[in-house]
Design brief:
Number of strands of chain B: 11
Strand order of the largest sheet of chain A: 1-2
Radius of gyration of chain B: 21 Å
Number of strands of chain A: 2
Shape of chain B: globular
Largest sheet of chain B: 11 strands, mixed
Largest interface: A-B, 51 and 74 residues
Helix content of chain B: 25-40%
Distance between the termini of chain B: 14 Å
Oligomer: heterodimer
Radius of gyration of chain A: 22 Å
Order of helices and strands of chain A: HHHEE
CATH topology of the domain at 1-44 in chain A: Histone, subunit A
CATH class of the domain at 2-255 in chain B: Alpha Beta
Structural class of chain A: mainly alpha
């Protein structure tokens, strides 16, 4: 993947990160370089190899469906940047 | 000096009532006052809270109600990525603002139950992304052996604090070498347990299929003690494994006769510093003289580990760090709609390396590129894991250098992310394979005098074996007793 093909504005938007024009330029060049290095994985034939998501294969780990103690309402809101009436306050989402 | 004690020395002397927990804790706080203005290992520490915990320990000892606690009165400092109730938690980042943890991580609960004194927040690369602490939003920690140099990372504060005797031991986290690499560069023992060995409840997630919590200590016995206290399943972490927890200190028999230790030929080429190589070669000879049998092995996919890691770790990070959006906690930069708020908050709150990795991770997961990058990396991960599992059919442990060079200078690699990534070349495979690994001191470079680390890698849940080998080596050398001049 050459740096030119890497649409930094689009990917940064997907990642929900606002970048300055200087940051865009610098990151695009650095990421182009890193993606160039990552290309070496294409040297390997992985046709018949299963992917590994976790090194310790465990599936469907569940606990008994019973209520246990958890954070209080007050503790959960304690670090909120804006709160009121026991709720998180956010900008208007729908008109 | 009480702050220089190991856990085993400290608990023995406390048990004989030769010293008090308050004296030990005060000794650590005094050392912080004396040296941390030069080292910058700590982001914050609450002296009154630490001393209150120490006094509570002394009262329990006086009342005779403290028997059987393996960490009684031991001051432990904590990487700024683990939740300690009512203490700040910033992950070396600005984006968490004035966050105060509302609960204790499971490991913190276990350490408290074992009698430990939990104090201080240790510096780190932002969100554990880095190899030098230069990515901390607050300060760059300095290597106690040469303050012009980095301590390693991401758990650089944890390694430097132990090396500078500012605490008795510390905790860090390791996603691609973030415990072993700084332990090597600062000259202490660092242990990355098997994936699933220790609960991660209360550890801020970076890459969920790779992260593990582990200890930094002054000797191997202390690492065994802490590992024993922290290990075991936890219903609040569904990736913790219900595997029996052995008596790790009991594994330190000093006898390694007949154990087979693998030397991977792929680790002794290209970019390896000659003094590091000489020290590791001498350590390998020492292991042989102690009765271990050396076996040359091959881990043929080693050369693909860094590329695989930087796809998988960044992909997982891009998902995990989505939670830092300015809504529920941390600093918020307002916007006219939620999308603008997220972008502004994250643009202002994250530093350059975190932005770089989130954007890379977002890209490798994005439509049209998922198969080419993420899925391919997961398949190469299988090959890397199989390399190790095949090797462990032949050998009990694998020995390598921990890092290709000793500590580099502050600023030396900070403008070239790829070169920084390549400094993790020997530690990354362990996390991808999900096995356990440790680093311990095995020598020094000559000019300047800087620590060199030996890495031992073990089978999944083979912690006892690599502890035994490391302890036998440590008993026959004096590297771990050397202290930096501060």
């Amino acid at each position: 993947m050459a740096a030119a093909e890497f649409d930094i504005k689009y990917v940064a938007h997907l990642a929900r990160i606002s970048l300055s024009p200087d940051e865009e330029k610098k990151l695009a060049a650095q990421l182009g370089n890193i993606l160039g290095y990552i290309e070496k994985l294409r040297e390997l034939d992985v046709t018949h190899v299963e992917p590994t998501a976790h090194a310790v294969p465990m599936v469907n780990v569940t606990r008994p469906d019973v209520v246990t103690p958890s954070l209080s309402h007050e503790d959960a809101l304690r670090n909120a940047p804006r709160q009121g009436g026991g709720l998180f306050i956010v900008p208007k989402i729908v008109e | 000096m009480l702050n220089q004690l190991t856990i085993s020395e400290l608990t023995a002397r406390l048990g004989r009532r030769e010293i008090s927990a308050r004296e030990v804790t005060q000794s650590c706080l005094d050392q912080i006052d004396r040296v941390d203005g030069r080292i910058h290992a700590f982001l914050s520490h609450n002296n009154a809270d630490a001393l209150a915990q120490a006094d509570a320990v002394d009262q329990r000892i006086a009342a005779g109600t403290a028997a059987g606690q393996p960490l009684l009165g031991v001051p432990l400092a904590i990487k700024d990525v683990l939740a300690v109730k009512n203490q700040p938690l910033n992950c070396g980042s600005k984006i968490l603002g004035n966050f105060i943890s509302p609960y204790d991580a499971t490991v913190i609960q276990k350490l408290r139950a074992a009698g430990a004194i939990i104090f201080g927040r240790l510096n780190m690369d932002e969100f554990a992304m880095g190899s030098s602490t230069e990515n901390s939003a607050f300060v760059t920690t300095r290597n106690p052996w040469d303050t012009a140099r980095i301590p390693g990372g991401s758990s650089g504060g944890s390694a430097a604090a132990v090396a500078a005797d500012e605490c008795i031991a510390s905790l860090g986290s390791d996603t691609g070498g973030s415990i072993r690499q700084p332990a090597a560069l600062c000259g202490c023992v660092g242990f990355k347990p098997t994936y699933g060995r220790i609960s991660r409840y209360g550890l801020v997630a970076f890459a969920s299929s790779l992260d593990q919590i582990g200890p930094f200590t002054k000797d191997v016995r202390d690492a065994a003690t802490l590992l024993g206290v922290m290990s075991g399943p936890d219903r609040r972490d569904s990736t913790s494994v219900d595997e029996p927890v052995p008596d790790y200190p009991a594994a330190l028999t000093g006898d390694i006769k007949g154990l087979k230790i693998g030397l991977p030929r792929e680790y002794l080429v290209g970019g390896l510093d000659s003094e590091v190589k000489a020290s590791v070669d001498a350590a390998v000879k020492k292991l042989e003289s102690l009765g271990a049998e050396l076996v040359e092995i091959s881990l043929p996919h080693t050369g693909y580990a860094v590329a695989t890691y930087y796809i998988i770790a960044t992909a997982e990070a891009s998902a995990n760090l989505a939670r830092f959006d300015g809504i529920r906690y941390g600093a918020r930069v307002d916007g006219s709609d939620p999308i603008k708020l997220y972008g502004a908050t994250r643009g202002a709150g994250f530093g350059p390396e975190v932005k770089r990795r989130i954007i890379l991770g977002t890209y490798v997961l994005s439509s049209g590129y998922y198969d080419a990058y993420y899925l391919r990396a997961q398949k190469v991960r299988t090959l890397i894991r199989q390399d190790f599992l095949k090797a462990f059919d032949q050998v009990d442990a694998v020995v390598t250098p921990t890092t290709p060079t000793a500590a580099f200078k502050v600023g030396e690699k900070s403008d070239d992310p790829l070169q920084m990534y390549l400094s993790d070349i020997f530690t990354i495979s362990c996390n991808l394979a999900g096995i356990c690994g440790l680093s311990l001191p095995c020598g020094f470079t000559s000019h300047p005098k800087l620590p060199i680390g030996l890495q031992l890698l073990g089978k999944p849940f083979g912690e006892s074996t690599i502890l035994r080998i490391a302890h036998a080596y440590e008993q026959s050398t004096a590297w771990h007793r050397q202290k930096p001049a501060l």
